[in-house]
Structures are given as structure tokens and as C-alpha cells.
Amino acid sequence: MEPLDEHVREAVMQRMDLTRNLSDQDILSIIMEEICCLGKEQFISMEQRVEIQKRVFHSLRKLDVLEELLEDDTITEIMVNGSQCIFVEREGKIYKTDYVFSSKEKLEDVVQKIVAANNKVVNAAHPIVDTKLSDGSRINIVLPPIAIEECVLSIRKFSKKPITMEKLIAWNTLSEEVAEYIQALVQSKYNIFVSGATSSGKTTFLNAMAQFIPKCERVITIEDSAELQLLGVENLVRLEAREATLEGKLEVTIRDLVRTALRMRPDRIIVGECRGKEALEVLQSFGTGHDGSFSTGHANSAKDMLSRLETMALMAGEMPLTAIRSQIASGVDIVIHLGRLRDGSRKLLQIMEVEGMKEGEISLRTIYEYREDCENRGAGQWIKKGVLLHQEKLKRAGLREKQTEL
After folding, report:
1. Is the pTM of this model over 0.85?
2. What DSSP letter does each residue of 361-378 carry, written as one string?
3. Considering its fold, how many domains does the chain have in total?
4. Of 42, 136, 181, 253, whose CB is crowded by the most CB atoms within 10 A?
5. Exposed, middle or buried by CB within 10 Å (0-12, 13-18, 19+), for 133?
6. What's the pLDDT tens digit per position in 112-163?
């Protein structure tokens, strides 16, 4: 914190009446009064006064230096590696900022403010916590001794305005032809799994894809931390898991929510992300008449996603591998794989159809594939390499294959 900021902050702290609740406007007024008093001793321009007021207010009532980064819509990720080292991601590239916390203790104060707002606890005994900010941004916090030196924060920001499929087309994440093909799949109620690495845009893509869901349908979303912003879905129920208390009680898992959702008369079930044992319930919901359901998962390719689904379902310890593979083959219709190219841009890389079981293995066939131009970095095109083998859902929706071949 700048010397002037620190001087004003200390003066404001001395004047604050802790016996009553001060509004944000009260605090802002006190800060400006102190700046004006300081301005009698040295010249402070109006622009400087406004900046000092903002910074001091953020340090007292908000998240200190993080507040300005959170207000910057061009930033998609904030990485705090201790009080003196903050990185951000813009347009797929990582930059080190000039922002620092005034001290290690100030960073710890901000961490406690974040977790307290969500009725959570983080300390040396429980040094890792996942939570979210008031604007919906997802945050992971790791404290010493797990983090060797100082607190580490990773904040994933989400756009204040939901990203539409039209925006993804404009950003060249996919082509208009591919978007129309996906629209036909969604409206025909194919079960779709979206895979990709960290920060490949899975949640964003799921949000955009949901705009193709007919308005008359009832949709249940299930998430560890509520992030989905579904456009145009009127009959929407959002469910969020709950961690156990310090005593190990009151936990509500994704598995619990999937079982509950089946009793809520859903037309579609959307699970934000499969990470563990809940994969078995997700697969069972896909195969029990809730066609048109979606989910996402971390993987390096569509084939790897199915392998990870096998592993996660096996963690439930309730079915043999052959039965799980059969569930995947019958429940998952389409895998859409996303990725990031060398230039940092996000692309739809594959649309794969799950053909079925062949010699005990799950068989995939490529429908669309992104082919990068090796000579022109960041350029490429989507190639259609096949047609759907299973067209029954298309036909029931009144669509024909020629509408999907485009």
C-alpha cells in the first residue's frame, strides 16, 4: 500500500465507530474527509483523491488489491502466489502484475474475509478450501503448511454476461456449421459429455450449448460449486453440493443430488463436472430415460474421457468393469472435446460418437475434427469425417441426416 494510502487508512480506522454498523457510503465519506485534510498539507489532485479513496475502501471493506483485478473484465484468472506475487491471465496468456498486498497478514485477512462470507473455515488444521466469491467467481485457497511459504489463491472468474454460442462462433471456438450440428444433437436429446483440460472452456461451452434446450423442458443442474448460467431455460432447478462440517456431518454429495434429481421429474439432468464416485450415478441417469443430459470432465481426449469415466465409476465399487463399460456405451451418445492451441485460443477439437461395444472395448467414431494449419499459427478448419451411426433420436425429433451433414 502506498504511504498516502496507509496514512489515510490509519486515520480512518481511528475514526470508525465500531459500536455501529457503517454503510459503504459512510466509510467512503470518512475516507474522503481524511484525504481532504491531508490535502491541506500537500497537493493531491482530484484524480489522485479518487484513486486513494478507492484503494483505501477496498482495503477496508472489500478484497484489497484483488478488487481491482476482479473488476477488470479482460482478466479470466487471478493467481496469488503469496502477498508479493500476483499473476493474471488475459486472452489465454499469463502476466505478472505490479499489484502486491501491504503485508502477509493483510493477505491472510482477505482470505479469512472470503471464507467467512461463505460460512467456511480455513486454518492450519484445515488448510485447503474451495469456495466462491459474491460475483460467482470460483476460488481455491491453500494455506501454510501445505503451501510452503505463504497463502496461495487461485481465482477463476466468469463473465458477468453469459457467453452465447454466437460469441463462441465469433471467437472462432467453433464454426457456424458445427454449432448447427450441435444444435441438432441437443434438440434431438442426445446425451453429451464435454471433455477437456483445465481452463479449456468446458463450463462456458456447456452454458452456451444449453441455449439450444427447448424452453418447455424441465432442467435440473447439479454442481459442486454453482457456476452454470443457463440461458433461456425457464423451468430450471439448481442444486449445489455441501461439504461436511468440521465434525464430519451434514455433507450432501453430488451422488446424493443425482439420486434426488431423479425424483424431481427432470427432462434433462446437467452435472457440472464428474470428478469421482458420482460418475456411476451420472451414467445411470443417462441410461434411465433422461435423454438429452449433459456433463463435463477433465481429459486429454474424447477416448481418455471414457477411460476416466470407467475409473471414476469403479471408485464406487459396485459394478464390474464390463458392466460399467456397457453403461457408458449405452448412456453416453456424444463426446465433445475442447482444448487450447499454442496461441492460447480455445477450440472445439473433436465431436465423437459412441458407437457401442466391440470386443469388450468402447468404440468411438469421429464426426467432426479440428485440423490446425501448421504453417499459420492459430488458423485451421473443422472437417466433417462421418455421419451419425445411431440416428433414432434424430428421427424422433423430426430431423433428417442431411440436416446434420450440412
Report:
1. no
2. EEEEEEEEEEEE-SSSTT
3. 3
4. 181
5. middle
6. 988 888 788 888 888 998 888 877 788 999 999 999 889 999 998 877 777 8
